[in-house]
Amino acid sequence: MGTVIIFALVALLALYGIVRTLREKNILGFLFGLGAFAVFGWFTVMTILHHGFPTGTH
User: Keywords in UniProt for this one (predicted)?
Assistant: First the structure.
């Protein structure tokens, strides 16, 4: 379940990259950021829905 947390952080960084590239008017960076956010965000959401939110104990 640690990978879900890491992928969620990557999705958040991709979202930050999307916002930053919009300010700089960088279309290619926006497209790559949007793709990364879509892939990592979808994986994170579906894993949390399927396996539940990761807890500290096993």
Answer: Membrane, Transmembrane, Transmembrane helix
- The string of pLDDT tens digits covering residues 7-53 is 999 999 999 999 999 999 999 999 999 999 999 999 999 888 887 77
Task: Report the distance separating Cα 16 and Cα 33, nearest Å.
Answer: 9
Query: Both tokens of residue 51?
Result: 């396996």
pTM given for the model: 0.77
Write out the residue range of the structural domain in which residue 37 sits.
2-51
User: Is 13 among the domain residues?
Assistant: yes
Q: Which residue type does 35 have? A: G
Contacts of 54 (CB under 8 A, 6+ apart): 1, 2, 4, 5
CB 41 within 8 A of CB 11: yes
Q: How many domains does the chain have?
A: 1
